[in-house]
Amino acid sequence: MSSQVFELPDLGEGLTEAVLVRWLVKTGDAVAVDEPVAEVETAKAMVEVPSPFGGVVARLHGEEGATLQVGSPLISVDAVRLETYVEEERAGSGNVLIGYGTSEANTSRRRRKVVPRSAVRSPARNGERPAVQSPIVRRLARDNGVDLQALTGTGPDGLITRRDVEAASEPVVVVSDVDQRTGLPIRTRVPLTGLRKAVTATLTRSRTEIPEATTWVDVDATALLELRADLKETGAAPGILAMIARFVVAGLARFPELNSRVDTERGEITHLDGVNLGLAAQTGRGLVVPAIKDAHRLSMRGLDAEIRRLTAAAREGTATAAELSSGSFTLNNYGVLGVDGSAAIINHPEVAILGMGRILPRPWVVGGDIVVRHIVQLSLVFDHRVCDGGTAGGFLRFVADCVEAPASAMADL
Question: Is position 61 annotated as part of the catalytic site?
Fold first, then answer.
């Protein structure tokens, strides 16, 4: 029997470390080539790491929650002939691989069930097959120190819900650990790892390097809502965010300074040919910005489909590293959080971000009369190195005019 050590592989995108979220195997388990053995969280995404070796797990290197460096040992696998275990199983020696059945006569070999991608399973009840658990609930359980295997889910087929995890969570107060400035006990300490560490670095760099400015405008979105209602009567209609996204892409074609990069080493501003539209999305792992590649080539319906796909992937933790790091301009719909306006932080190395608040009925002056209209606030934060207020204001006014007169704007797109 020979032992092979599998090291944490290069995860791409210049990443050098990952947090070991969960082991998918345990010592003594049989693993096949390309079978996932661990779930890790990088600064970009949650991924499963497959084993390049087949055999029996001899050792797991690292505890769940630990930060591992690329190239450090992950698991050790004993390369054995599985046929040997099959013969032992038939002979009833009792020395069989875990998950390969019992020593009863005529028992067929059963391979250990591979844990599906991004899945934690709740305990089965009354012989039912346990259900696949969502990444958001897994993250909540991990942050609160709750063992999912010890819970009985109240959802369909024993699914563990967020409420189940919250009910099992106990506040952790370390009385002996006191904040020196306030004198208050410290409840918990949350390490800056994985995505949160990457977000911290990006936003800090943005605030440090970018001389930003903010401009905003209140926009009458009544005609936009009416147009979408008309489209719904004829079939599926794109969402409001997709419609505004199309106006944003058109605006960037007219004001390319806002779809650029500042290359400080070469002392130049690089204007990009095309738009990868980033979409700020709040997830259980934190704020991520998946990007719609070549958004300038898509219609409103095409943008709508990609928005739905990417936001779902971001919340499920399945968005790829490329999708999470390729944006050229970001659209942030903070209205879904129930707020009207915000001065966002630019997603470095981008140079601008457009924010959209919630759409609310408000009194508005139309033709000298006060009427009720549906108003939304749009705010643009931009890097003053790439343009001045005239360009920023021109872009924002273009998008606002499209929102106020969408039918006319669509005829020109």
Answer: no
